Structures
1.
Amino acid sequence: MDSDALLTFLTIHRRGGISSAAKALHRSQPAISRRIALLEQELGVPLFERIAGRTMLSDAGRVMVPYAERAVAATQDAENAVRALARPNSGPVALAVVGTLAGGRLSTILKRFAAEHPDVELSLRTATSAEVSDLIRRGEATIGLRYDRDRSRELDCELLFAERLQVVCALDHPRAGRRIAKLAELRGERWIAFPAVPGRREITASHVFALFQTHGLGEIDWTPVDSLTAQKRLVEAGLGIALLSESNYAEERRHKTIATIDVGDLKASDDVVTITRRGGFLSAAARRLLEIVRKEYKKARMANGD
C-alpha cells in the first residue's frame, strides 16, 4: 500500500467516481481502475460499491478514509520539508478561510506577506468552517481561519479574536444610531440571516433564534439570504435588520450606508481561530504567515479594548 494508491482512493471518493478521478489525476480510466483494484486486492476487501449508478464507499472504504488522509498528508509534509531545505523562503502555502472573514483585514495580511515573500506561491480558498477544518486535516491547506474551535485531536486551534456582533439597520430605521435597553424591543423586526447549513458557522437564523430564546422572547420573522453582500444590500434598503460581526460591515459603516442599533442586554461575539494540522510540517514562509495573522488580529483586539 503506497501513497499513490491512497491518493487514487481518496480522489475517487471525493470526485464521486473513476471517470472524474481520472480527469483530476490526469490519468486514463483503465489506469485508475487497475490502481484501485490492486489496492482492494491487497486489502482483501472492496473499498467501493455501485449503488443506483453511483460510486459509493463500502464499509471498509469509510473506515479507510481518515487513515488514507493522514498518510497522504504526511507524504506531502515530507516532500515539503525536503524542498524547504533548499529554498526556505519559497514553495507553496495554502490558506483556507471562511468566506465572511475574507475582508479588509485579510487583504492587509496577504499584502504584507506577499511583499515579504515574493517567491512563495500563496493560494487562497474560501469555505465554511467545517470545510476549512477538512482542508487542513487532508493536507490540502496549510493554515485555516475559521469561526470557533475545532475539537478534533488532529488539529491545533489558536484563538485570535472574539469579534463583537452588532445589530445593523438602514440609515432611516427609527432606531438607527440609537441605544435600546433590551433585545425584546426588536422582537417585531424582520431579520436577515444565512439559512442553516450543516458545517456553516456564519451567523445563521438559528443563531439569531437562539439569542431570542435565551432572552425568553420566542420565535422571530426572518428572511434567509445565502450571501453576506446581499444581506447588507437588503439591510440598506430597509427590508430587514441583521446581526453582523463588526468587520463584516466595516466598509458600509465607513461609507455611512448602514447604521447600528446598540442593544444593552445583547452580549454576543464570534471566536475567530487559526487551525493547523497537529504534527504537520510548516515551512518558514507558513510560520511567517501565521505570525502576520496573529499580529493583525492582535491589533484588532487592542483597537477593541481587549
Note: The chain has a mean pLDDT of 84.
2.
Amino acid sequence: MIFNIKKLVQPHLRKFLPYQSARRIGGKGDIWLNANESPFSINYLTKKNNLNRYPECQPKNVILKYANYSKVNVKNILVTRGSDEGIDLLNRTFCIPNKDSIMIFPPTYDMYSVSARIMGINVKQVPLLKNWNLDILNIKLNIKNVKIIYLCRPNNPTGNCFDDKILKKVLEIADRKAIVVVDEAYIEFCYNKTITSWLYDYSNLVILRTFSKAFSLAGLRCGFLLSNENIIKILSTIIPPYPISTPTSEIAEEALNKKNINTIKNNIVLLNQNKDWLIQSLKNNILVEKICHSEANYILVKFYLSDKVFTFLWNEGIVVRNQSEKTNLKGYLRISIGTKNECRKLIDSLNLLKL
C-alpha cells in the first residue's frame, strides 16, 4: 500500500513554491551575472583540527572583529547562517501564524515573504512608487497587525537607497507597533549610507548584514544581525545551539583581518569602475530602453523584447536574472557586475543580437 505523505504536510505548504534562487533556476555557461555574487575569489585556509567538538554558539572572536569593523558594540551583534537565517529567526520570534503580518515593498528580495508564508504568517505588500520610493501613506494605512517591516537598502533588485528622512518616518510609524528590519546586504558598495549609528536611537530597529556579497563569501553562509541588546538577547534564546560551524567561524574571523578588508575595499573600487563602464556601454546599445541608477553591485536594465534578450544571453552562456514576473518590472533584467572581461563579453554578445 502506497501512503500519500502529502496528507501529513501542512495544508498551506502542499503546493508551496520555493524561493527561486539563482542555483535552483540553473543555467549553463561560464559567465554568471545572476546572483549578485562577487566575481573575485579570495582564498582562505582552515587550520583547526577540532571538528570532533561542537563550535561556539556565538563565536566570540568573530563578533569582536565584526564589532570593530562595523563600529557596533559586541552586545548588539548576533552571528547567523547568512541573513536568511536572520529573517527566519525574526519571523519565528515575533509573528504569530495566521494572526500577525509582515510588510514588504515589492519589487524587493523574495525571501522576506517566502519565510513568512512557510510559517503561515500574513504578508502585506505595499508596492514601491514609480520612482522606487516608499509609499508612506499606504504604510500608515496598512500598519495594523504588522509585527515586522522589511526594507532592503540598497534595494534588490532596483539598486536604490531609500532616503534617510523616509526611513525615519517608517521607524516613527512603527514605533511601539512593529520592528523595522533594514537589510544592508549590499551596504559595502555605498558604505556611507549605513544606518548602524541609528541602533542606539531606535529600539525597534534591526539591521541585517552578510558576507555573501562584497566579502566574496557567498558559499560560506555567514551573516550578522545587529540590534539593541534586548532584541539580541531574545533572539539568542531562539537561535539553534550551533548555527555557525567551526570552519565558517575560522574563515569569517580571517576575512575580518585588516589585510583582507583592504582587499575587499579594492575589489569594490574595481566593481564600481566595471559598473560605470558597463552602464556607459549599455547606453549605446539599441536594445536598451532604460537603465536604473544603482548603488549596489548590480544594475536593473529594461530591454526591448527582454525575453528574447534573456534567452539569447542564456544560450551564449551568459546568465542574468529575468525580473519580468516581479511587481512593475515587466521587461527588466538584473545584471550582476562581473569582471571587466565578463562585462565586455556581455556587451559583445548584446551587439550581436538584432531585434
Note: The chain has a mean pLDDT of 93.
3.
Amino acid sequence: MTTWLITGCSSGLGRALADAVLARGDNAVVTARDAAKVGDLAGGYPGTALALALDVTDPQQVTAAVRAAEDRFGGVDVLVNNAGYGYRAAVEEGDDADVQRLFATNFFGAVAMIKAVLPGMRARRSGTILNVSSIGARICPPGSGYYAAAKAALEGMSGSLRKEVEPLGIRVTAVEPGGFRTDFAGRSLTQSATVIDDYADTAGKRRKENDTAHGTQPGDPARAARALITAVDSGRPPALLLLGSDAVTVIGRTLDDQRADIEQWRDLSVTTDFPEPS
C-alpha cells in the first residue's frame, strides 16, 4: 500500500488530493498548520489516515511529521510539497520581511521536507516527490515577481534533484497548475502594504481589490488530484507536469516566445566565444 505525505491539506489541491488518495485505499499523512482543519479527513479513514499539525518553516515539526509517518506506516512513498501561498507586489513595493516569509514557506519549507524524507527513500531505493510550483514560474506576471522567483527556485532545485536521485530509484516532478478554483487567489493570497501609483497599470491591476479571477478559474481541484495520482501510478512521472488547459496554452506560448528571442539574438549571442584556432 502506498503512503503519501501531503503538505497544505486544509483546502484546495492539497485537500482534494488527500481525499482522493484515501478514497482509493492508500495511506495518507494529511497535514496543515492547524491539525483541526484536516481532522475530518482523518476521521473518515481511521486505519489509513494520520492528521498532523505541520508548519513547514518549523524544522522540529518537519522532523516530527516524517518520523510519525514512518512510525505509523513504515515510510513515505510519495511526498507532495503543496504548502504555499501567493504574494502580490511590484518588485519595488515588496516588503523584505514578507518576501523572506514567502521563500521560507514556498521554497525552503519544501527543501526541508525533501531532506527529511530522502534518507528513507534512499534506503528503500524508491519514492516519488511532487513539488507543486506554478505557471507563474515561467510566465512571470507583473505583480508576482517574488512568487514567481520562489517557484522558479523550487523548479530549479527540482530539476537538479531529479538527476541526483533518479539513479537511486526516486522520481521527482515539478507540477505547474494553471488557474484552479481554490482559495489560492482568495484567502491564501497576500500582498504588499506599500502601493506605488506608477505601477497602477501593471502590478496594480493584479492586486486583490482589482483582480476578479477568483471563483472563475477553469481548473477543478478534484480532477487535478486524479491527474497527480495517475502520474505517480505511471512509475515514471515527467520532470514537468502541467495541470489545466490554460497551463498548456500559456506555457506553450511562452516557450514559443523564448525560442523566437533566442533565434532573433543568436548572431550576437555566439560572438562571445573565444575565436577558434586558425
Note: Residues 3-267 form a domain with the Rossmann fold fold (CATH 3.40.50.720).
4.
Amino acid sequence: MMGGASENPELWAFLESLHCGVFLSGTVAAIERFGVFVALDDGPAHPVFPGVGFISFPELSWRLFEEASDVVQVGQRVSCEFLQFDTWNLEARLSLKVTQPDPFQVFADTIAVGQKLPGQVTKLTPIGVFVQVADGIEGLLHLRELAWTPVETPSDVVQVGDKITVVVTEIDRGRRRIALSRRQGSSTGL
C-alpha cells in the first residue's frame, strides 16, 4: 500500500529503530471509526495518514467505551507504549491502556475466592448472568450457580438491575475473568 523503505526511507528507518516497550509521546491527530492516529513528537510525518502512531480500539482503554472520543480528544497529549512496526501501513502501533493500571488486576488484589460481594445484574445470557461487582468489573454467574434448583433461563430467577449477593469462586487474572456463585452465598443447603 505505502511502498517500502525506498519511497519513505526516513520514516522506515525511524520505525525500524523503535523497540517494543518504549514510550512515545505525541498528540492525538484524528479519531477514526477504526482507531486513533497520533502525531508523534519525534520522527518524521506520515506521507498519507494524519500521524505515524496508531492506537487500535482494544489498546485505548481497559474499560468498555462507546466512542473513542470518550477516552481521548483530538489535540490531546498522550504517551503510549510502542507495540509493533506495522510495515504494511508504515505506522507505529501503540497502546495507551498499558500506561494505566488495569482496574481488573487492582480489583483482583482486593478480593479472594470464597468472599461475598454485593453486585448488580447487568446482562442475561443463555449460559448465565453478568454481575457488576465494582466499577467497570463484571463477573459471570453461571446458570448452574444461580439457584439451588435447576434453572431453565436466568430470567426465571433474576432481572437486569437486580441487586444480589454473590460469592467469588474463581479469579482468572490471565483472562481477566471472575466466576461467581449464588448457591454458595445462600444459607440454604449448606
Note: The two ends are 64 Å apart (CA to CA).
